[in-house]
Automatic annotation (TrEMBL), chain A:
CDD domains: Sigma70_r4. Residues 109-161 form the RNA polymerase sigma factor 70 region 4 type domain. Belongs to the sigma-70 factor family. ECF subfamily. Keywords: DNA-binding, Sigma factor, Transcription, Transcription regulation. The lineage of its organism: Bacteria, Bacillati, Actinomycetota, Actinomycetes, Pseudonocardiales. It comes from Lentzea alba. This is SigE family RNA polymerase sigma factor. InterPro entries: RNA_pol_sigma-70-like (IPR039425), RNA_pol_sigma-70_dom (IPR014284), RNA_pol_sigma-E_actinobac (IPR014325), RNA_pol_sigma70_r2 (IPR007627), RNA_pol_sigma70_r4_t2 (IPR013249), RNA_pol_sigma_r2 (IPR013325), RNA_pol_sigma_r3/r4-like (IPR013324), WH-like_DNA-bd_sf (IPR036388).
From TrEMBL, chain B:
It comes from the Bacteria. This is Uncharacterized protein. The keyword Transmembrane applies. The chain crosses the membrane at residues 40-62. Residues 69-81 have a biased composition (Polar residues). It comes from Lentzea alba. Residues 67-90 are annotated as: Disordered. Keywords: Membrane, Transmembrane, Transmembrane helix.
């Protein structure tokens, strides 16, 4: 690869690595796996960089690669076998406002428990629509499906997520808004 | 739960993200290493496939002789001569031994030989052919002859089985080992009962591991009958036969 192309990739990767890792985290719910997914996606992009470097929307392409990498990874047998059943609690931080902390913990629970129970493709649609703030058309491009499919998957995903959150709230005593 | 709440919830979920330790140069280095490893692997695979194809195709591409052996343009003197079929060898040895015996003992009549390939000498009168055994000689048979007393035969064995050497002198009246100039050695044994020689044996041992043995009995070994007082052929004649340069045993 030419030095100029390599430099272009270097700049793109450095600018978008964090954003891609966040999206990957919402897909998989684990920061380590998210980092692996981000790195694998960028490696794939580096190999194809000569061909893709002139694309209009490189970050959309990167999201598409990330999504494919995650879905492929989920199909692997050793990933299917892995079942995480808990996480060590973080140490309490006395300097933080308790209300803010409570909201953040609830959000974490929303992701860890509720979002991870939504089927993968519906989850991907929700993350791309509400976290990445993409339009239906952009999500359709990223998912490689029609806009109609995106809409139906969004509706189903929202319904599933709401049902799970309601269930979680009722079991924890919190009232869903 | 509204869409806005979901949006905020997702943003809050990544609030405590761990610090990102990402270096594009390290990633590029890893990709390049992977690429070179893949290239090496493909190279090894292609080379292995080519070797396999050539090893299978080469015997088919080389010219072959009529007998299916690979032909060679320049046969060297060091290469081993083509091996003679054992049936042909049996025929050749039998004819030659009969011819030589006839020359050495002109008083004999109807001298002829019959050798079998790969079967231990057995009596032709046997109703069935005995089964093959592991220690069967390469060939064996009888040189038939008729002397003043009547028809009888000499037993001939050509083998690579070393045990033939162990028993030749057992219970022999006389037994001696005579080294030959060509590196082979000859063992002569005679068995005497009373005043008569009942058995004469000559065994020639070749450096190649071959043993050629000719035995003369006071009975016809081919039939088990025809008992007589003395062997029809003495050990000196047997030794002359087994060491005759015209008889190519090997």
């Amino acid at each position: 690869m030419r030095k100029a192309d390599e430099q272009g990739f270097r700049e793109f990767a450095a600018a978008n690595a964090a954003s891609l890792r966040r999206t990957a985290y919402l897909f998989c719910g684990d920061w380590h796996t998210a980092e692996d997914l981000m790195q694998s996606s960028l490696m794939k992009m580096y190999i194809a960089w000569k061909r893709i470097k002139d694309l209009d929307n490189l970050i959309a392409y990167a999201r598409k690669v990330l999504l494919r990498t995650w879905l492929d990874e989920k199909r692997r047998p050793w990933r299917r076998a892995e079942q995480r059943d808990g996480e060590l609690p973080d140490a309490a931080d006395a300097t933080v406002d308790p209300d803010t902390t409570s909201a953040k913990l609830w959000a974490r629970e929303l992701v860890h428990t509720a979002l991870l129970q939504v089927p993968p493709r519906q989850r991907a649609v929700l993350v791309l629509r509400y976290f990445e703030d993409l339009s239906v058309a952009e999500v359709a491009v990223a998912m490689g499906c029609t806009e109609g499919t995106v809409k139906s998957q969004t509706a189903r995903g929202l319904a599933t997520l709401r049902a799970i959150v309601e269930k979680l709230d009722s079991s924890s005593g919190r009232v869903a808004s | 739960m509204s869409e806005q709440e979901i949006r905020e919830g997702m943003l809050l979920a990544v609030w405590d993200e761990p610090p990102l330790d990402f270096d594009p140069d390290t990633l590029i280095k890893r990709v390049e290493q992977k690429k070179s490893r893949r290239r090496a692997l493909v190279g090894v695979g292609v080379a292995t496939a080519m070797i396999a194809v050539v090893s299978f195709a080469l015997p088919g591409l080389l010219p072959r002789g009529n007998d299916g052996q690979l032909a060679s343009d320049n046969p060297t003197s060091s290469s081993a001569p083509p091996s003679e079929p054992v049936e042909k060898k049996a025929q050749r040895l039998g004819d030659k031994l009969a011819e030589k015996l006839d020359l050495k003992m002109p008083n004999l009549k109807d001298v002829y030989a019959h050798f079998e390939a790969g079967v231990y000498a057995y009596q032709p009168s046997s109703p069935t052919t005995p089964p093959r055994r592991a220690n069967d000689p390469e060939l064996s048979g009888f040189v038939y002859l008729t002397d003043d007393i009547g028809p009888t035969s000499l037993q001939v064995v050509l083998t690579k089985n070393r045990s033939i050497e162990e028993y030749i002198c057992v219970s022999a009246t006389t037994c001696r080992d005579v080294p030959q100039k060509d590196g082979s050695s000859v063992m002569e044994a005679e068995f005497v009962e009373g005043q008569e020689i009942t058995r004469s044996v000559t065994l020639r041992k070749f450096p190649s591991g071959y043993y050629a043995q000719i035995s003369s009995y006071n009975a016809n070994p081919a039939t088990g009958s025809g008992l007589r007082q003395m062997v029809p052929v003495r050990v000196d004649v047997l030794t002359a036969l087994v060491t005759d340069p015209d008889v190519r045993w090997e």
